[in-house]
Each structure stands twice: as structure tokens, then as C-alpha cells.
Amino acid sequence: MHETPLLSVRDLTIAARTMRGDEAIVRGVSFDVGAERVALVGESGSGKSLTARAVMGLLPRTLSMQAERFAFDGRDLRALAPEGWRSLRGRQIALVMQDPRQALNPVMTVEAQIGEAIDIHHRGLPRTERSERTAAILRDVGLEPSARVLRALAHQLSGGMAQRVMLAVMLVNGPRLLIADEPTSALDHALRDQVLELISTQVERRRMGLLLISHDLQQVQRFGDRVLVMRSGQLVESLAARDLANATHPYTRTLWSCRPSAQTYRTRLPVLDRSSDTWSEIA
Amino acid sequence: MITGTPAGPPASAVAITGLRVEQPGAPHPVIDRLDLTVGAGEAFGLFGPSGCGKSTLLRVLVGLHPYWRGGISILGEAVTPRTPLHAGVRRDVQMVFQDPYGSLHPLHRIRRSLQEPLQINGIEDTDGRIHRALEEVGLPRAVLERYPHQLSGGQRQRVAIARALSMRPRLLLLDEPTSALDVSVQAEILNLILSVRETYAPALLFVSHDWDAIAHLCDRAALMAGGRIHRLLQRADLEQPLPETLAP
Amino acid sequence: MIAATLSARRFRRPGFPQAAGGAVLIAAIVAIAVLAPWIVPFDPLAQDLGQRLLPPSAQHWLGTDGLGRDILSRLIQGTRPTLEFVALVVVLAVPFGVAVGMIAGYVGGRVERCLNGLTDIVMAFPQLVLAMAFTGLLGPGLINGALSLALTGWPAYARLMRAQARLVARSDYIAAARLQGIHGLRLLWGHVLPCCLPSVQVRLALDLAGVILAAAGLGFLGLGVRPPMPEWGAMVADGSKVIFDQWWVAASPGAAILLLSLAFNLLAEGLRDVEDPFHA
């Protein structure tokens, strides 16, 4: 990719302060995200969610972050102040989290939330313009901008609808990068594909970059271009999504092939060799 | 179908006819007119969306949910809502719960969680049994001195399975035992369940919303929705991918 | 919350210094009570009408009261009836309240409704007024006073326990225990009770401060310990007669009551922060 990548990260380290000094939870993570769909996959404890939080500027205060390079669209974010982050998030970088009904404001209507998102980054926009943009974005995410939808509150929306509204709120200002942290984990299986399809289409249509955090390799193979595999705080492999079935790294191979199916009936599934894992919980 | 005579091995592990289950305070029954038979040693899957009543069915079977009517026979013995499952059948039916973070007592060490049921039921050689149980589920003995919060989700679930196995049940109910676990840990647990089948051959009733897990583990399955069984699936049906029309 | 208690990191948790401070203070007062007969500078009961109402001095650190008795000695001696009173109230009220609440919460149904009704009725009575009525009926004294406070104090624990027991009863680990054949008293004592106790602990520490004040109140009204026993509340009552000119006679026992209440409060707040840091 000869153009500046949207997101560029080199040697990212996230550490926690403990009684024994700083303990690195995520180490040496490097990757780029361009106008493509990149998936960050791993199991619990792999550090993928923390990495996503770091990239959003939302690490908890008890953790510290260091990187040799951390830039968005060429702009260095390492020492960015909170005000800088606020202007970036929602405008250039959009975030979609796991449970949409919790991420949406419980006392604001759909219309008001989208309106607020518009207002924060486009002050003084005339009302008609705002309503038009609201209606347009709702149609984009597959919702009819009817009075019922516009006036709905978060708890009145189903899981799938809530995720679409979340997307609408996030996309209305035309961001360049979308970071989605397990956007379908809280949804029923049937809805997962639909929502990811939607995200994928929107990202392509708007020529955005997508950083998708997921634990579901099958999902990622269908909806991603590149896959970054994390384990125990480190990036162990980076490969094209279509090559997942033929991965070379033993961890990725096992992760891919350990899924049960009708074909594995009454056979033993391949499992990970955990002998090298640190048993810090037991210690 | 309901014999009531405990002599001889039962032909079916579970035989349910015309079951109706209510939830106090709810206007509609949770389960309505359900018939089901699970053979001895069979692995039977219950597939359906959340809220379809599959977990409630398990709770009815173990006696945790008493608001029901109909005919239920477990391992050849008829049960009623009022029967506290008396000692014999209780030992023979065990359940593994969904949430590995909730099914072990948070303030008891693992040793106590494994030992107390053995002591209660007058089983001798508790230490020997416990050590063997841990070996079966692949956990080190160091685990005995830990509290549940010091173990990972997969380890907790293994302890839960060890606890269930220590009773040598002839019917094992599994309520989404791997839903809360990572896919690689789920593989380990599924392998464990497979070896349990090979060693003890209990009947299994496996509840899940994961079609692949059911296709992997079960001989037969039923599709549940809205408190009813919509379709019974044979092994050949399970070999097919989940058709759109059946998706919850 | 329960797991947080077991973590070795609790020493760095907010609240530990408070809890430790409170505990140290209480321990010191208990030590004083135990060693009282040996550390009193004067005989707490010895009257010397020639030395009445003397201000604090090198000889009488806190001065003397209306009957010439050394106030410091009476304070020190007074730790005993005060602590005995508190202990008695706790021993009587808490187990009863805990049992009622746990059974109500766990068993549910009609039993719960009955016990709730009983709890609500007793709770409706203002504590001190009922305590006064009891001691009026049974006669004043340490045991009767403690009994009357206990009889009106247990409902708070019953309510707490009931709420907790209801939650715990629905948990998977209790269901699992029942499936393994554990039931009845063994289940309640070994499985349900340990999960419900932490909240009781915190409430208790907080209540103790209140009990001390109630005891002092009863003593002030002459319904507590019989004279000439040096109970702090009674001492405040005596001192209130001369409060404008000889303020130290009432202020000294008052300060002691304050100190002990404070100690229990610190312990309670600290404990609450240690157990449940999210409420801090």
C-alpha cells in the first residue's frame, strides 16, 4: 500500500502497574489498517480488546501505553490530549461496541441521538439539513425513518435494530475508520451475519477502513480481508482472510480447526498445547 | 412408557408425555404439550433460540422447577412435581450448568465442592474418588486448594463436570456447558464429554443454541421453539447444514 | 464482591486504613476494659465529698464529679459495662435476625410472608421508646436494657438477610448443591449463610455505634446500668446537671462515647470499602 495507511501502529506495548513494577499485558504489536477490512482475532486474555481500546484512546487509567509509532492518517496520536481525542472520535474514527442497547443513551430517542452526533461535529446546521441526514443514514443502515423508529428509545429496540441505530449514529459524520469491538457477540446467531453484512457493505461503499475485533474465526473469514491473530498479548500471525484454512502458524491452525461440526462427530477435536501458557491465576 | 418398576435397566433414560410447564406469574406456559424420549446411553440435543424453554425443561427434569403437569419418567421411574427426587434417582441424574462462574460455590475450595456430595451420599474413599475424578477431567491436584475465582472458565467447567461425574450418573444433563467458553476451550470440554461417553456411557441431554456443537456431539436432536418441539432430527438430518427455515 | 475479599490485594484497597484504624481503636478500648481494675488511678466508686467537682489537674486528669469520684477512673471502669452491653445486644439480636431473614428469603412463599409481617411489625416501633417501655416493665439494669434493645434491633438484620438469601437461593451453585443431595440445615448453614454474611458484617459494625448511643441514652434516662456503676450514659446525665460550670463532668464521658462510636464507624466504613469497593 503506497498511500498513507489510515491507522499505523508499531511496537505497541500496554502495561499495568503492579506491586512488582510494570507488567506488560500487550507487547510489540504492529499493524496497519488502510481502506480495507482488518480483523483482530484472539481468545479471552489475548489482548485484542485492550489493543482496540488503546487505538481508540480509551484505555483505563490503570494501564499505560507506549508505542514507537501510533498514527492516524499520518497524524501522531501518542501524546494526543483528551480534546484532540474528542474531536477525532465520532468524526474521523467511529466505534461500535458489543452491546448496542447499553451503548445507546437510554433516555434519548433515536432521532435525538443521531441529531446530537451531527451537532457535535457540525455546529449550526439548519434543522432541515439535520433531519435529511438523519433520514438518509437510517435508510443506509436498513431502517425506515418512520416516526416509530425516530421516536424510539433504546430499550424499545430489538438487539439487531439497536445495532443498526448504533451504526447510524457512528457513520452519520462520515468517518474514515470504523473500529468494531465484537459487534455481534451479544446478538442471536441469526442476526450476526446480517449485522456484519451491513457493516461490511457500509465500509466498502464509503471506502472506510474497518478494524474488527472478534473471537469468531469463521465470521472473520467471511467478512474480513486480512486477519491479525493475537495470543497472550502478542501478535502471532498476520494473513489474508481467505488463507485462514491453510494457516501455517500452529496456534492459528488449531484455532481454525478446533471448531465442532457434523463432520467431527464422535472424533476428538484438535486442541491447543497450553504447556507454555503462564498459569498466573494458579500461581 | 411409564413403568414405575425400578428393576432391570430402563429402556429409556427419559420419557416425557404431554408436559406442560408454567412460570408463576407468567400468563403463558413456558412449555406446552411436549413429548420426548431419550434412549439409555443416547446423546440427545435440544436446539433452539433463547427463551424457547429448553433450559427450563432441564430444570424440570432435575426437580428444580416444580410447576408442571404431565408424565415424566426418568430412568424407568415415574416422577411427580412433588417428588423430591429420592436418593437413588438423584444420584443417577446430574447436571452441568451453563455459567462456569456461577455453578461453584464462591466461598468453598474446590476440595469441598467435590468432597461434600460424596460425604453426603455415604460414598467411601472420598480422597481416592476425587483424585480419580480430577485425572479424568485433566486437572492437576493443586486445583483442590483453590477457590473458583482463581480458576479459568474452562477449569471451572471441568470441575463442574468432575463433580457431576463423581455421582456416576446414568443421565447427564448439559445446559449450554460451553457457551461461555472460548472456542479452543470448548473443544477441550467437548473432547472431555466424548471420553465420558466412552467410559461411562450415560444418556446425555445436551442443550445448546450452537448448531455445530449439537451436530458434533449428538445422535439425535429436537428443535424447540416457543415451548414446543417442532421437529425431531435423526443423525442424517444433523449431517446437513442448518437450513434457513430452521434457523431460530 | 466475595471474590474481592479473598484477593490478597485487599491491603491496597481503599478502606483498609480506615478499617484498620477503627479496629485498632476498638482493640485499645477492649484492652482498657480488660485491664481496668489494674490501671485505674483511683477507686471509681470511692466518694470524697471534699474533692467534689474539681477541674482537671495533675492528680485527677479529668477532674472529679459531683460525689468527688475521679472521672478518669470511672471512665476506665465504665468501658466494661459499655462493652458488655454492646456485646449482649449483638449476641441476642444478630443470630435471631439472621436466622429469621435467611429462612424467610430461602424458603419463600407463606413462610416468607409470615416472617416479613413479623419483621415489619417490630420494625414499626421506635426503638428507644420500646426499649423504655420494656425496661419500665422489667425494671432497669444492664441485662434488661440490652434485651430491650435486642428485641427491637433484630429486624434490620432479618431484612438484610432476606434480600441476600433470596438472591443466593436462585443461584446456580445452590441448585448444584441441592442436586447433589445437600439440603436442609446443612445447605443453609454451609452454603447460603456464608454468602449472606458480608453485608451483615458491615451493617453490624455500623449498628454498634448506634447501640452505644442507645445504651448511653438509656443510661441517661436512668434505665440502664444501676448506680453507682460508672456507665458512660449515666455519667453524662449526672454531668448535665452541672454542665455550665463544670463542663468536664459531662464532656469526658461524652467524648468517650464519641470515640467509641467513631471507632465502630471507621471499622464499618472501612469494611464496607474493603468488601465492596464499588460503593465507596
Q: What's the shape of chain C?
A: elongated
Estimated helix fraction of chain C: over 70%
Tally of extended strands of chain B? 10
Quaternary form: heterotrimer
Structural class by sheet pairing and helices of chain C: mainly alpha
- Percent in strands of chain C: under 5%
Largest interface: A-B, 25 and 33 residues
Q: Unreliable stretches of chain B, pLDDT < 50, 5 or more residues? A: 1-7
Note poorly predicted spans of chain C. 1-10
What do the pLDDT scores of chain C average to?
83
Concise synopsis of the structure shown:
The complex is a heterotrimer of chains A (283), B (248) and C (280). Chain A has 283 residues and is an alpha/beta fold.
Verbal overview:
Chain A has helices at residues 48-56, 82-88, 100-103, 110-121, 127-140, 147-150, 159-171, 189-205, 217-223, 250-257; strands spanning 7-18, 21-33, 37-41, 63-66, 69-72, 75-76, 93-96, 177-181, 209-214, 226-231, 234-240. Chain A is of the alpha/beta class and 283 residues long. The longest helix of chain A has 17 residues, at 189-205. The model of chain A is unreliable at 278-283 (pLDDT under 50). Chain B has helices at 54-62, 87-92, 110-120, 126-137, 153-165, 183-200, 211-217, 235-239, and strands at residues 12-21, 31-39, 43-47, 68-74, 77-79, 93-96, 171-175, 203-208, 220-225, 228-233. In chain B, the strands form two sheets. Chain B has a six-stranded mixed β-sheet, with helices on both faces. In chain B, helix 5 packs parallel to helix 6. Chain C has helices at residues 2-6, 16-39, 71-107, 109-124, 127-138, 142-169, 172-179, 184-220, 232-240, 248-275. Chain C is elongated. In chain C, helix 3 packs parallel to helix 6, helix 4 runs antiparallel to helix 6 and helix 8 packs antiparallel against helix 10. Chain C contains ten helices and no strands. At the A-B interface, loops of A face helix 6 and helix 7 of B.
